[in-house]
Protein backbone atom coordinates (compact mmCIF):
# COMPACT_ATOMS: atom_id res chain seq x y z
CA UNK A 1 0.00 0.00 0.00
CA UNK A 2 1.25 3.43 -0.95
CA UNK A 3 2.17 5.92 1.79
CA UNK A 4 0.09 9.12 1.86
CA UNK A 5 1.75 12.41 1.07
CA UNK A 6 2.10 15.09 3.71
CA UNK A 7 -0.73 17.08 2.10
CA UNK A 8 -3.12 14.10 2.15
CA UNK A 9 -2.32 13.40 5.81
CA UNK A 10 -2.85 17.07 6.66
CA UNK A 11 -6.23 17.19 4.90
CA UNK A 12 -7.33 13.93 6.55
CA UNK A 13 -6.38 15.31 9.96
CA UNK A 14 -8.18 18.58 9.22
CA UNK A 15 -11.36 16.77 8.19
CA UNK A 16 -11.38 14.66 11.34
CA UNK A 17 -10.51 17.36 13.86
CA UNK A 18 -11.79 20.73 12.68
CA UNK A 19 -15.15 21.62 14.18
CA UNK A 20 -15.91 24.13 11.42
CA UNK A 21 -15.23 21.77 8.55
CA UNK A 22 -18.35 21.42 6.42
CA UNK A 23 -16.79 18.95 4.02
CA UNK A 24 -16.96 18.43 0.34
CA UNK A 25 -20.34 17.61 -1.14
CA UNK A 26 -21.96 14.97 1.02
CA UNK A 27 -24.85 12.78 0.08
CA UNK A 28 -27.47 14.29 2.39
CA UNK A 29 -30.46 13.00 0.46
CA UNK A 30 -33.52 14.99 -0.41
CA UNK A 31 -33.45 18.71 0.35
CA UNK A 32 -35.09 19.61 3.66
CA UNK A 33 -35.12 23.35 2.95
CA UNK A 34 -38.56 24.83 2.47
CA UNK A 35 -38.73 27.58 -0.14
CA UNK A 36 -40.87 30.57 0.80
CA UNK A 37 -43.98 31.01 -1.31
CA UNK A 38 -46.36 33.04 0.87
CA UNK A 39 -46.74 34.61 4.28
CA UNK A 40 -49.72 32.34 4.94
CA UNK A 41 -47.54 29.26 4.47
CA UNK A 42 -44.93 30.81 6.79
CA UNK A 43 -47.54 31.40 9.51
CA UNK A 44 -48.79 27.82 9.15
CA UNK A 45 -45.22 26.60 9.55
CA UNK A 46 -44.89 28.64 12.77
CA UNK A 47 -48.16 27.19 14.09
CA UNK A 48 -46.68 23.69 13.87
CA UNK A 49 -44.64 24.61 16.92
CA UNK A 50 -41.16 23.88 15.57
CA UNK A 51 -38.43 26.52 15.53
CA UNK A 52 -38.00 27.97 12.03
CA UNK A 53 -34.65 29.20 10.73
CA UNK A 54 -35.25 31.73 7.97
CA UNK A 55 -32.47 32.64 5.55
CA UNK A 56 -33.12 35.90 3.71
CA UNK A 57 -30.97 35.66 0.60
CA UNK A 58 -30.28 36.94 -2.86
CA UNK A 59 -29.43 34.64 -5.74
CA UNK A 60 -25.73 35.30 -6.30
CA UNK A 61 -22.30 33.69 -6.01
CA UNK A 62 -21.91 34.80 -2.39
CA UNK A 63 -24.80 32.60 -1.26
CA UNK A 64 -23.50 29.31 -2.69
CA UNK A 65 -21.64 28.52 0.54
CA UNK A 66 -24.68 29.50 2.60
CA UNK A 67 -26.89 27.20 0.50
CA UNK A 68 -24.58 24.23 1.14
CA UNK A 69 -24.47 24.91 4.88
CA UNK A 70 -28.25 25.31 5.05
CA UNK A 71 -28.72 21.99 3.23
CA UNK A 72 -26.41 20.21 5.69
CA UNK A 73 -27.97 21.83 8.74
CA UNK A 74 -31.50 21.14 7.53
CA UNK A 75 -30.63 17.47 7.04
CA UNK A 76 -29.05 17.23 10.50
CA UNK A 77 -31.76 18.99 12.50
CA UNK A 78 -34.80 17.65 10.60
CA UNK A 79 -37.66 17.36 11.76
CA UNK A 80 -37.26 19.28 15.03
CA UNK A 81 -36.07 22.51 13.34
CA UNK A 82 -37.43 23.71 10.01
CA UNK A 83 -35.28 25.70 7.55
CA UNK A 84 -36.90 28.22 5.23
CA UNK A 85 -35.18 30.12 2.43
CA UNK A 86 -36.57 33.41 1.13
CA UNK A 87 -35.29 34.87 -2.12
CA UNK A 88 -35.79 38.54 -1.37
CA UNK A 89 -35.98 39.81 -4.98
CA UNK A 90 -39.04 37.57 -5.48
CA UNK A 91 -40.74 38.56 -2.19
CA UNK A 92 -39.59 42.11 -1.37
CA UNK A 93 -42.56 42.88 0.89
CA UNK A 94 -41.71 40.09 3.32
CA UNK A 95 -38.01 40.98 3.37
CA UNK A 96 -38.52 44.72 3.79
CA UNK A 97 -40.55 44.10 6.96
CA UNK A 98 -37.37 42.72 8.58
CA UNK A 99 -35.72 46.15 8.08
CA UNK A 100 -32.28 44.87 7.15
CA UNK A 101 -30.09 46.33 4.43
CA UNK A 102 -27.40 43.66 4.21
CA UNK A 103 -28.05 40.29 2.62
CA UNK A 104 -27.86 37.42 3.31
CA UNK A 105 -28.97 37.29 6.92
CA UNK A 106 -30.51 34.58 9.07
CA UNK A 107 -33.13 34.79 11.80
CA UNK A 108 -34.68 32.19 14.07
CA UNK A 109 -38.41 32.30 14.77
CA UNK A 110 -39.52 30.12 17.67
CA UNK A 111 -41.79 29.64 20.70
CA UNK A 112 -45.17 30.32 19.18
CA UNK A 113 -47.23 30.55 22.34
CA UNK A 114 -50.76 31.69 22.68
CA UNK A 115 -50.73 35.35 23.72
CA UNK A 116 -53.15 36.67 26.31
CA UNK A 117 -55.48 39.59 25.67
CA UNK A 118 -54.76 41.19 29.09
CA UNK A 119 -58.41 42.09 29.74
CA UNK A 120 -59.09 43.44 26.26
CA UNK A 121 -62.17 42.23 24.52
CA UNK A 122 -61.69 40.98 21.05
CA UNK A 123 -62.93 38.50 18.55
CA UNK A 124 -62.80 35.03 20.16
CA UNK A 125 -62.20 33.50 16.72
CA UNK A 126 -58.85 35.25 16.38
CA UNK A 127 -55.91 33.45 17.92
CA UNK A 128 -52.87 35.53 18.81
CA UNK A 129 -49.37 34.13 19.10
CA UNK A 130 -46.13 35.49 20.48
CA UNK A 131 -43.10 34.54 18.42
CA UNK A 132 -39.55 35.19 19.55
CA UNK A 133 -37.21 36.35 16.77
CA UNK A 134 -33.46 35.97 17.24
CA UNK A 135 -30.81 37.22 14.83
CA UNK A 136 -28.28 34.51 13.94
CA UNK A 137 -24.84 35.90 14.69
CA UNK A 138 -22.74 32.74 14.92
CA UNK A 139 -20.41 31.03 12.49
CA UNK A 140 -22.28 29.96 9.35
CA UNK A 141 -21.78 26.23 9.71
CA UNK A 142 -23.63 23.24 11.13
CA UNK A 143 -21.52 23.64 14.26
CA UNK A 144 -22.55 27.31 14.46
CA UNK A 145 -26.25 26.36 14.28
CA UNK A 146 -25.75 23.69 16.95
CA UNK A 147 -24.07 26.19 19.30
CA UNK A 148 -26.71 28.86 18.55
CA UNK A 149 -29.52 26.44 19.40
CA UNK A 150 -27.73 25.37 22.58
CA UNK A 151 -27.14 28.99 23.65
CA UNK A 152 -30.77 30.00 23.19
CA UNK A 153 -32.31 26.82 24.59
CA UNK A 154 -33.84 25.66 21.33
CA UNK A 155 -34.53 21.94 21.31
CA UNK A 156 -32.74 20.82 18.15
CA UNK A 157 -33.37 17.07 18.37
CA UNK A 158 -36.29 14.86 19.27
Automatic annotation (TrEMBL):
Q: What InterPro entries is this protein classified in?
A: Thioredoxin-like_sf, Thioredoxin_domain
Task: List, for all copies, the residue spans of the domain called Thioredoxin.
Answer: 37-115
Could you name the domain of life of the organism this protein comes from? Eukaryota
| Signal sequence, renumbered to the chain | none
Stated name of the protein: Thioredoxin domain-containing protein
Species this chain originates from: Erythroxylum novogranatense
Amino acid sequence: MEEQSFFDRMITHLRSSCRYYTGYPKDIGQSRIIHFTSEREFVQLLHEGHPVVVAFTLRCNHTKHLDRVLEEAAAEFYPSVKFLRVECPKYPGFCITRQKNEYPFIELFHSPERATNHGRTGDPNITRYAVKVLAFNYDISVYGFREFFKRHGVKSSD
